[in-house]
Design goal:
TIM Barrel; 4 domains; 14 strands; binds 3-methyl-2-oxobutanoic acid; binds zinc ion
Length: 519
């Protein structure tokens, strides 16, 4: 058995902000990363992998600021097997209360061919880089990337070298999601039995979901002796994603009878962070996703509903409250008061100060005037709407009228307030959204590239709100905007303008002089 304070305690290592964010299109802004990190810390994640500091200035700053704000979690940064990466990583994490350097190199035949190193040369590189990391930080994780396709003897040899050089955690990545549960368990068990010094370190499992087995593989590894699971919220990650945090945590909780291991996660925080990660990453959660999918607790068939009414345990193996889902989807309407809204939002995980509640209440009333029934998801959409603080914004949508028809082009008549001065334009485009975005560009010329435009219907019905996410990219920096409205084109315009407002703020932070000229 590997080293750990308690044999049944499994550490949760969250890599949403590194492996998850690395997924094409899932880029998050600096503030979003800080917000997610603080939610992870709050929910009891043991180790947060905050990013890859050498990758860019933005990554470095995010890891550094997350390290500075962290209260309990160990903050980890990723580094390739070279001194420059490791030094930069240390620079970023060093101010954390509990820093960790995570360094890796691909050890399988295919990965060894990339740096063109012989087995001996690679072994030497591992010794030198892990020793270097350990001289800087007393908490060092080492990963042989593509471990599950590395020759077993060579894997044992390099793990032994890493342990001797000072690694305190050995992570076994299934980089391409190739392994299966029995093999995952066998590998961990054999490594622990074979590698000298294995009992001095913690073994971790890092699985990808290419064959849909990431959760099963991670749990099998735990049964074989791994005591750290690497995972992401909603299973976010490249290709088919990583092991989903909510799945392993709830599996260990619900089936504790056959998997007697504990995590330190407050599971009632799961739903809220799942929603937030979906919103900021622009990766919606599939309806039938285990634990956090919209339908995970919905019982629509007659037989199920009947059974549920008699005894919830008939079809439910966990309670919605366990993951922070309100027990009832109590519908709100235009007669609902401030107190009811506050209580409802609290159930949904939002504890608001009075001034925040006032602002949301005004927007709730406006929505309830247009929409007979306001559901939980509508309220969540209101809460994630980044166009909430209109008074402070440089750009504000004042008027929008779009003319559509079977014969294009569509026309958008738009008025924006730009730092208080109203400007109007009429633009045409290939569809109402294109016409609207063209109008915005004419009124506020900019070079930022539209990196993502996503529409999501919040509830069912033709009066449903649409949540629109817009992501803009300028000089390698990413900003996002989100808005919800029963009119998709209005939500689109507001989301785009919100992203531009964030861009203006970001320019001001990075280049004050330039921002003054363009704003
Ligand atoms: O999947 C992988 O191999 C990784 C490593 C960098 C740990 O993410
Ligand atoms: Zn990975």
């Amino acid at each position: 058995m590997t080293k750990t304070t308690e044999q049944d305690r499994v550490l949760i290592f969250d890599t949403t902000l590194r492996d998850g964010e690395q997924s094409p299109g899932a880029t998050m802004t600096h503030d979003e990363k800080l917000e997610i990190a603080s939610m992870l810390d709050e929910m009891g994640v043991d180790i947060i992998e905050a990013g890859f500091p050498i990758a860019s200035e933005g990554d470095f700053e995010a890891v550094r600021d997350i390290a500075a704000q962290a209260r309990n979690a160990v903050i980890c940064g990723l580094a390739r097997a070279n001194f420059k990466d490791i030094d930069r990583c240390w620079e970023a994490v060093r101010h954390a209360k509990r820093p960790r350097i995570h360094t890796f190199i691909g050890t399988s035949p295919l990965h060894r061919a990339i740096p063109n190193l012989t087995m001996d040369e690679m072994a030497e590189r591992i010794h030198d880089t892990v020793s270097h990391a350990r001289n800087l930080c007393d908490n060092v994780q080492w990963s042989p990337m593509d471990a599950t396709r590395t020759e077993f003897d060579y894997l044992c040899r390099v793990i032994e070298i890493a342990i001797k050089a000072g690694a305190t955690t050995i992570n076994i990545p299934d980089t391409v999601g190739y392994t299966a549960p029995r093999e995952s368990a066998d590998l961990i068990r054999r490594l622990i039995e074979t590698v000298p010094g294995a009992d001095e370190v913690i073994f971790a499992t890092h699985c990808h979901n290419d064959l849909g087995m990431a959760t099963a593989n991670a749990l099998a590894a735990v049964e074989a002796g791994a005591r750290q699971i690497e995972c992401t919220i909603n299973g976010l990650g490249e290709r088919a994603g990583n092991t989903a945090l909510e799945e392993v945590v709830m599996a260990l909780r619900v089936r504790n009878d056959i998997m007697p291991y504990r995590t330190g996660i407050d599971t009632t925080k799961i739903m809220n962070i799942s929603r937030r990660v979906a919103a900021v990453s622009g990766f919606p959660v599939q309806y039938n996703k285990a634990i956090v999918g919209k339908n995970a607790f919905a019982h629509e068939s007659g037989i199920h509903q009947d059974g549920m009414l008699k005894n919830a345990e008939t079809f439910e193996i966990m309670r919605p409250e366990d993951i922070g889902l309100a027990a009832t989807n109590l519908v709100m309407g235009k007669h609902s008061g401030r107190a009811a809204l506050r209580a409802k939002l609290r159930d949904l995980g939002y504890d608001l100060a009075d001034n925040q509640l006032n602002d949301v209440f005004v927007r709730f009333k406006a929505l309830a005037d247009r929409k007979k029934e306001v559901y939980d998801d509508d309220l969540i959409a209101l809460m994630t709407d980044t166009t909430a603080n209109l008074a402070d914004d440089h750009l504000q949508v004042r008027h929008l009228r779009v003319v559509c028809g079977t014969e294009g082009p569509q026309t958008a008549e738009l008025t924006l307030a730009i730092d208080g001065a109203e400007k109007s334009v009429t633009a045409t485009g290939d569809g109402p959204v294109d016409a609207t975005f063209t109008a915005i560009k004419q009124l506020f010329p900019h070079e930022a590239r539209l990196a993502l435009y996503q529409v999501h219907a919040v509830t069912e019905g033709t009066d449903a709100q649409a949540t629109v996410s817009v992501r803009l990219e300028e000089g390698g920096k990413i900003v996002t905007g989100q808005s919800a409205d029963t009119d998709t084109v209005v939500a689109s315009a507001k989301a785009y303008v919100s992203a531009l407002n964030n861009l203006i703020v970001r320019r001001a932070k990075t280049k004050p002089a330039e921002a003054a000229a363009s704003a």
